[in-house]
Amino acid sequence: MSRRHFAFDCAGNARAATLDEAPAPTGLLIVTGGNETRAGAFSSQAQLAFRIASAGHPVLRFDRRGVGDSEGVNMGFRNEAEDIAAALAAFRHECPPLKRVVALGNCDAASALMLTGGGAFDGLILSNPWIYEDENAGAPPPPAAIRARYAAKLKSPREVWRLLTGKVSPTKLARGLAGAASKPLASDLAAAMRDGLGQFAGPVRILIAERDRTGQAFLAAWDKRDVRVHACAGADHAYSDDVSNEWLVGQILAALADE
What crossing angle do the helices spanning 143-154 and 213-221 adopt, rounded to 10°? Predict the structure, then answer.
């Protein structure tokens, strides 16, 4: 296994990429989310690429336009289709033996892949897809998560005692109860993502970190009967603890093995 850096062209601008080489004919293309560079938070994507390449699969990561070492102006995930398509073409050019390519996206990168209808990929791994109309907004907890939190509090003698002794703010309590009673988020973005994914014929895995608000919101707005959804108990948005990270790697390797 070796790692090398290069650049590919997209609409006349250079996109920076990193390729972890490996012999398998099925590769992984990692699409970054937000303003995150291809290294990932705390080098998480670089480490993930190393793990997957060590298991035999080549991995390509890239900085989308206007992010990290890539040229151009960052237009957000809704306008990332051209970058993703150019990255896939570059991956196939740099690795001629490739027969299949699976894309992985977390947060708005997953949303971008859904909006493109899966592009020309052979499989998709969609982690904690972002469904909020404002891509710069923080993700509030969905009603289901609020209800679960209050249910847990009512099982705690300490929390019940705080409530009975007036140590809980009435304003915060009223706000929380109102949030718990509200309807799940519905958005035009979520509908567009659903329509886009419906155009994709290949295998799909939807990964949800159960402690992540973005993932919780997606689940609240998604079809509960979708058997493609896989949840990791106790995981945060980046699957940063050892147990969650091992689960993520296992899910990715399983997706790379799907035909």
Answer: 110
Measured at the CA of 41, the angle between CA 39 and CA 100, to 5 degrees, comes to: 50
CA separation for the pair 169, 173 (Å, rounded): 6
Q: In whole angstroms, give the CA distance from residue 244 to residue 240.
A: 7
All structural domains of the chain, each given as residue ranges with its CATH number in brackets, are 2-138+186-257 (3.40.50.1820), 143-181 (no CATH)
- Distance between CA 207 and CA 104 in Å, rounded? 10
pLDDT digits (tens, 9 = 90+) for 85-141: 999 999 999 999 999 999 999 999 999 999 999 999 999 999 999 999 876 555 556
Q: To which residue do tokens 């567009």 refer?
A: 192
Give residue 4's region: left, alpha or beta (phi > 0; psi -120 to 50).
Answer: beta
CA distance 98 to 121: 12
Tell me the pTM: 0.84
Q: What are the structure tokens assigned to 169, written together?
A: 């703010």
- Contact between 144 and 125 under an 8 Å Cβ cutoff? The reply is no
Cβ atoms of 197 and 131 closer than 8 Å: no
d(CA 206, CA 251): 10
Q: Is the dihedral of CA 26, 22, 205, 34 positive or negative?
A: negative
